[in-house]
């Protein structure tokens, strides 16, 4: 199989799988509308007027999902409408992940009804892009093409598609940067990393990882170029500080290393229960932590930019609060770059155990789509 065939086939597979996740959620919801993807909750702050006017299904007794937050941001990407800011749980934090909402806003040119479809559409494009880039990166490491298929179907990405979140946008640009960096196109890689950080601020750790690697190789000019990728998100955060009141909000998602994991393990010990959520926590969480620890041990030999970036993302994940580790979908979305970031270096050094541990993520993929068939998308 040629590299071009791999790229096309994996992109088509990823696009079809993620489109299927959207289709299943749409048609298993009682309203049978794509607007159900955003799960607007009635326990959140007062929702904007367009929600009721355009007929969004309301999740009664629920808080909705992150996807509804970025839908609101897309209606006012420059943060000039007080109504939108009041509807957000943490305005600065949500506006900090601006790229996907901004792309949708630019595409729709003020059409409110267009925005949800644009967000879903962009996520599907990014899913296909992730598949193509993974195929290319796996081929670079002379590994089996199945790894690209598996990584493009990881649970964190499927959950992000399922709730119309920003992770696909961020990972697509980050992987593009990794591919450019491996071909010594440092400027293009930095531009892609900058876009990834604008999609999700934690992705600023990726160019920092590449900068550290370049510094260790005694290439200061290259390190500086990678660090410039952090400038756009830094400037955007300064703008938000000027136009929006209140704290950044990210601190509520962070704590001491392993404290979040320890809290939900202690809760399970105090209140043992046999249910699907508990099973998924352990079936996915334990292999994920094992992956991160094995990857940390490999840094003694592997000082590549991708390896260091994945380690930085892993450290951030291990510092995540209990609210993040409460559900597999939560911690997998928080750590979704850790999967390709850890697996690709593992494939390069022929560490099959670390790579195979990532397959546990497919449990979330299956349970996310299967749950809609069993319980319906309104559940």
Report on the structure:
With about 375 residues, the chain is mostly helical. The chain has one domain. The protein is built from 22 helices and two strands. Strands 1-2 form a two-stranded parallel ribbon. Helix 2 (about 50-55) links the parallel strand 1 (about 40) and strand 2 (about 60). The mean pLDDT is about 90.
Explain briefly what this protein structure is.
The chain is mainly alpha-helical and 379 residues long. It has helices at 3-28, 49-53, 66-74, 82-87, 91-95, 99-108, 115-140, 146-152, 155-162, 167-182, 186-199, 205-216, 220-227, 231-243, 259-270, 276-298, 305-318, 322-325, 328-334, 338-348, 352-357, 362-375; strands spanning 40-41, 58-59. It has one domain (3-375).
Task: Compile the SSE list and pairings.
Blueprint: H1 3-28, E1 40-41, H2 49-53, E2 58-59, H3 66-74, H4 82-87, H5 91-95, H6 99-108, H7 115-140, H8 146-152, H9 155-162, H10 167-182, H11 186-199, H12 205-216, H13 220-227, H14 231-243, H15 259-270, H16 276-298, H17 305-318, H18 322-325, H19 328-334, H20 338-348, H21 352-357, H22 362-375
Helix pairs in contact: 1-7, 1-22, 3-6, 6-7, 7-8, 7-10, 9-19, 9-22, 10-11, 11-13, 11-14, 12-13, 12-17, 16-17, 16-20, 17-20
């Amino acid at each position: 199989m040629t590299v071009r065939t791999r790229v096309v086939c994996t992109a088509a597979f990823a696009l079809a799988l993620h489109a299927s996740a959207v289709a299943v959620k749409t048609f298993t919801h009682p309203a049978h509308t794509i607007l159900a993807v955003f799960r607007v909750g009635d326990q959140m702050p007062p929702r904007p007027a367009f929600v009721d006017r355009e007929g969004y299904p309301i999740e009664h007794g629920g808080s909705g999902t992150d996807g509804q937050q970025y839908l609101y941001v897309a209606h006012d990407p420059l943060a000039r409408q007080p109504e939108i800011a009041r509807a957000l749980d943490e305005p600065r934090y949500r506006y900090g992940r601006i790229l996907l909402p901004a792309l949708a806003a630019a595409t729709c040119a003020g059409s409110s009804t267009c925005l949800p479809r644009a967000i879903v559409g962009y996520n599907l494009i990014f899913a296909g892009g992730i598949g193509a880039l993974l195929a290319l990166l796996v081929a670079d490491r002379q590994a089996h093409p199945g790894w690209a298929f598996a990584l493009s179907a990881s649970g964190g990405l499927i959950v992000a598609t399922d709730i119309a979140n920003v992770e696909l946008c961020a990972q697509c640009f980050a992987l593009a940067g990794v591919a450019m960096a491996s071909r010594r196109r440092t400027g293009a890689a930095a531009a892609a990393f900058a876009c990834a950080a604008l999609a999700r601020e934690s992705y600023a750790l990726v160019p920092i990882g590449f900068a550290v690697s370049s510094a260790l190789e005694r290439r200061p000019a290259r390190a500086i170029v990678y660090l410039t990728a952090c400038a756009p998100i830094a400037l955007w955060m300064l703008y938000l500080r000027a136009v929006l009141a209140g704290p950044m909000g990210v601190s509520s998602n962070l704590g001491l290393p392993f404290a979040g994991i320890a809290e939900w393990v202690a809760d399970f010990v105090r209140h043992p229960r046999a249910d699907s959520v508990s099973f998924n926590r352990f079936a996915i969480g334990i292999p994920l932590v094992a992956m991160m620890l094995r990857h940390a041990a490999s840094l003694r030999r592997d000082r590549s930019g991708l390896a260091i970036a994945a380690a930085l993302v892993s450290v951030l994940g291990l510092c995540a609060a209990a609210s993040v580790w409460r559900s597999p979908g939560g911690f997998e979305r928080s750590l979704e770059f850790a999967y390709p970031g850890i697996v690709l270096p593992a494939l390069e050094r022929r560490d099959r155990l670390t790579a195979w541990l990532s397959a546990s993520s497919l449990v979330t993929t299956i349970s996310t789509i299967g749950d809609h068939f069993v319980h319906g998308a309104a559940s």
